[in-house]
Amino acid sequence: MKNPILVACPRTNDRPITTISPAMDPDIWSRLPKELLEQILSFLPLKTLWNLRSTCKHFKSLVFSLPFISKHSPSSSSSPSPFSSFVLLHHPQCNHRFPLYDSALGTWRDSALSLSDFLPCKSPSFSLLSISNGLFCFSLPRSSSFLVCNLLARTSRLIEFPSYPFAYELFTLVSTPVGYKLFMLSTGSTSTSAFVYDSSVLSWRQFRGFDQILSSNYQREGVCFNGCLYFLTPEPFSLVTFDLETGKWKRSDTELPGELTFGRLLNDEEGTLYMIGGTGRDGISRSMKLWELNGARDWVEVESLPEMICRKFVSVCYHNYEHVYCFWHRGMICVCCYTWPEILYYKVSKKTWHWLPKCPYVPDKWSSGFKWFSFVPALYASV
Predict the structure, then answer these.
(1) How many domains does the chain have?
(2) F-box domain location, by residue (predicted)?
(3) What is the pTM of this model?
């Protein structure tokens, strides 16, 4: 039995009266306002928050309720996230373990993320395709399927290929308010079609009549903006959009910056579309710049890469810009190269450029194949 709490009361005949009060009165705590309980839970560490779901039905229903999710999930911009966010490194020579850089603490984690602890299917052959809103998407070619999983919640869904055999390109994982969509192009015996899987209806849609406006060797995933996927074609550069609802392709009339040598698209949580790329002549970048698409559909220059940093980056990729890709991560625009184990990033709030510290767990023998992802754990992201 717990020690009672002694409460001193007014004196009677010069002798204090002592009463015994329980440390926790169930009648009082059971009547705690729901809003106050939500506020208390929002301050708990992630591990404790997750364990609470097995405490009682009331806690489980509250933690998984839509109001609580909208207020305290990592995707909410109205409140600070209680979860850490990471830059995740994937390399084919270490396919089952992913080193993690904690962007909140500014350091590499001592332990890597191990898939052997999370993947529900022990497939010897798989490939990490994309991460979005805390969801991982893998390709499992031997089982002719994709695997979408939330490693934090230990939930997953196996999605069979829409046809057999199924070769695809331009794979893009798109987060939606009610789930996610998978987009890809697949070339059949006679034509190329766009395929879209919608998690809200658990089915594929095929859009035929694809106009060959992207080159056959185009490998960049699309960037979702205003309900469409945006692609930047190889030279001659132009913007191409695909409407995820109607399946219609369109070449945008937005004028791109002059003397563009390469460009990569990305967007932030607020829905702003950015492009980072090189400018120069004869396919050689003399400078690198960052542009933002404004409301008038014009590209406005936001920042120019400092000369010394630009020289290092173009020397890293040896002017082979096919190796360059970029992504958004928690206020950072990250620019990467498949052949280089470092990340160049732009801190939007401070308008400064930096190099992410090299991962101490990467052997020197890893010369290429570096693939980086933004991983923001989302306990409530549904598969």
Answers:
(1) 1
(2) 26-72
(3) 0.78
